[in-house]
Amino acid sequence: MNEVLIVEDDKLLANLEKDYMEMSGFSVTIVGDGITGERMVLEGDYNIMLLDVMIPGKDGFEVLKRVRSEKLIPIVMVTSRSDEADKVRALSMGADDYITKPFSPVELMARVRAIMERERRIRSLVMKGNTEVIRRRDLVIDCSSKRVWVGDTEAKLTGKEFELLSFMASNPGRVYSKEELFDMVWHENAYGDITTISVHVRRIRIKLSECGFTGDCIETVWGVGYRFISA
């Protein structure tokens, strides 16, 4: 059974989300503040987290940043703020989706199911051919543990950065448009802008370079998109 952690201080909304999720077969835990939510998700074994932005203790962005530094759990940000900059910020920090209140529980469930299906699809693509470790020069991508090394130095990638890198690395030489990458890694129904692909590629390049990776494993194909360089 899929385990869900809801971090939401609006008890009525949290219980409504819980009811719909339990009817869909999920097991749900609710907490009302960011400090407790952060501790529980880091110590627990949840399959997905719904994280409100405006919560007491620690706000959602603080929790997102801490969790993304340690775990790859799918995270849906939930907020009453409709500022586009907040959506881009959340997605750039590694959130899997962003939904603005008020929303229907049916829409929320559709998004959660889409994310869970996308996680299954990405795992299937990355693990194609039973390939658990992808090696490109001194770059090592361990798909089973979702960790990346350059030589002996581990690159601390966010969940979305890892998924984007591992997806392209599992299909070296193929050129993907930003739209294709957004569809495969973020899912076509996710809120956001395909420019987030460029943001993530830039962050991957910086992090690998900081770990000592020379050259560029992700090549920009101008006017088309990106491809992973296998040589």
Which CATH architecture of the largest domain is right? 3-Layer(aba) Sandwich
Shape: globular
Task: Report the uncertain regions.
Answer: none
What radius of gyration results from the CA coordinates? Answer: 18 Å
For the record, the count of structural domains works out to 2
What's the end-to-end separation, in Å? 42 Å
> At the first level of CATH, what is the class of the largest domain?
Alpha Beta
How can the largest sheet be summarized?
Answer: 5 strands, parallel
Order of strands in the sheet with most strands:
2-1-3-4-5
Total number of strands: 12
Element-by-element helix/strand order: EHEHEHEHEHEEEEHEHHEE
Helix run count: 8
Topology:
Elements lengths: L2 E5 L3 H13 L3 E5 L2 H10 L4 E5 L7 H9 L6 E5 L4 H9 L4 E4 L4 H22 L6 E4 L2 E4 L4 E4 L2 E3 L3 H11 L6 E2 H9 L8 H16 L7 E4 L3 E4 L3
Parallel strand pairs: 1-2, 1-3, 3-4, 4-5
Antiparallel strand pairs: 6-7, 7-8, 8-9, 10-12, 11-12
Helix pairs in contact: 1-5, 2-3, 6-8
